[in-house]
Every structure is written in C-alpha cells, then in structure tokens.
Design a protein that fits this description.
- This protein is 29% helix and 26% strand.
- It is of the alpha+beta class and 174 residues long.
- The protein has one domain: 3-Layer(aba) Sandwich (Aminopeptidase).
- The protein has a 5-stranded antiparallel β-sheet with strand order 1-2-3-4-5, with helices on both faces. Strands 6, 7, 8 and 9 form a 4-stranded antiparallel β-sheet that branches.
- A hairpin with a 3-residue loop joins strand 1 and strand 2.
- The radius of gyration is 15 Å and the shape is globular.
- The chain starts with a strand and ends with a strand.
- Coenzyme A (COA) binds next to strand 5, helix 3 and helix 4.
Length: 174
C-alpha cells in the first residue's frame, strides 16, 4: 500500500468492481479507450488482482483518504505486449479529474518503481488525441519518443484509437 497526501494506492478488492464498471459506463472516461462490457470490466479487475499477486505491483486501485472511496487506478505494469517495458498508467472517475490527483498518484508510482524495480526507465502510451493523458506525462517530466509512434495491435485497422504515442522517463540520477 502506498500513501500520498490525499490518496491510497492499494491492491484491488471485489468491492471495486461496481465503481470500476461505473467508470466504464462514463463516455467521458472512455473517450479514448476501447469500450468494455460488464464481463470485460470484471475480467480487467481479475487481471489486476492476478498481476498484483504475481509481481507485487500493478495499476493499483486508488482510494481517496478523506472519503475512503474508489476513484480509479494508477500504477506500474510489468513488461507485456506490445511494448516490453515497465509501463505507468492511469484512469480516474470523471469527478476526480482536475485536482492533481492523477499526478499525485503517478508521482508516487514512479517513486515506488525507482525504489523497488531495477529498471532504467518507465514508459507510458496513449492515443495522440488523449491530451489529458499525454499532458500528465509531460507534467511528470516524461519525454515523447516520436520515432516510436505505433499502431496498437489490439485495435482494428481504421480505428481512430489505434495510432499511439510513447513517452518515457529515465531513472533519476542519484
Ligand atoms: C488522464 C487523466 C488521469 C488525467 O487526469 P487529470 O485530473 O487531468 O490530471 P492531473 O491529476 O495531473 O490534474 C491536472 C489538473 O488538475 C489541476 N489541479 C488542481 N489542483 C491541483 C493540485 N493540487 N495539484 C496539481 N494539479 C492540480 C491542474 O491545474 C490541472 O488542471 P487542468 O486539467 O484544468 O489543466 C484523466 O483525464 C482520466 O482518467 N482520463 C480517462 C482515462 C484515460 O484516458 N486514461 C489514460 C489512457 S492512456
């Protein structure tokens, strides 16, 4: 469990399934993400739980300390297809945007990664149109690698969400 000023980053619980599904039903949250059915939403939670159990880290569930409510996820995933590097990622309920909460969670995730993972760098990917996501990457000090733009292989050709951009941050020098 990671604690920040306003947040707790923690393993997923069964009680997160309902508010996570509510996020999947919000077109603002899903504007640049592939749609999820209820089964796919629950399967995503199952995968988060399994990855956390196996690796000790994941896109953790985010809870506001004051309210004790689930507001989304942020954290680090181990290397997987299509970019085989450690990845930072985030998704917050719309009511939690615009307060610096994603940034607070992401900074804590990066600090955790530098302390616990023997990695030289962490990357993040998003769709070019997802300005809120890549602006956060830039606020975190991540740098875009335009030569590494790619089409996400899990999205169909012609899908406007398919073109992806990649940002990376190098481990801070001591
Ligand atoms: C991407 C996402 C996490 C960004 O969230 P966010 O709230 O915009 O990001 P931050 O936490 O950095 O907050 C920044 C905003 O909070 C404001 N803010 C308010 N109080 C703040 C504080 N104490 N500290 C920092 N920023 C603060 C900033 O001024 C900025 O405002 P702006 O949006 O008007 O420019 C969010 O939009 C999201 O969940 N999107 C849907 C899911 C998604 O697309 N995920 C990414 C897939 S690749």
């Amino acid at each position: 469990m990671i604690e920040t000023e306003r947040l707790i980053l923690r393993p997923w619980r069964d009680t997160d399934r309902e508010p996570f599904w509510a996020m999947a039903c919000d077109p603002q949250v899903m504007a640049y993400l592939p749609p999820l059915t209820r089964d796919e939403s629950d399967a995503a939670v199952n995968r988060m739980m399994a990855v956390e159990r196996e690796h000790g880290h994941v896109f953790w569930a985010l809870e506001r300390k004051a309210e004790g409510d689930f507001i989304g996820f942020c954290g680090i995933l181990p290397p997987r297809s299509p970019i085989f590097e450690y990845e930072i990622g985030w998704r917050l309920a719309h009511h939690a945007w615009g307060q610096g909460l994603a940034r607070e969670a992401a900074q804590a995730s990066l600090a955790w990664a530098w302390a616990h993972l023997p990695v030289p760098a962490i990357m993040a990917i998003t769709n070019l149109a997802n300005t809120r996501s890549w602006r956060l990457m830039e606020r975190l000090g991540m740098e875009r690698y335009p030569n590494e733009d790619f089409d996400h292989p899990e999205l169909a050709e012609g899908d406007p969400l398919r073109p992806h951009i990649l940002y990376r941050i190098q481990r801070p020098q001591p």
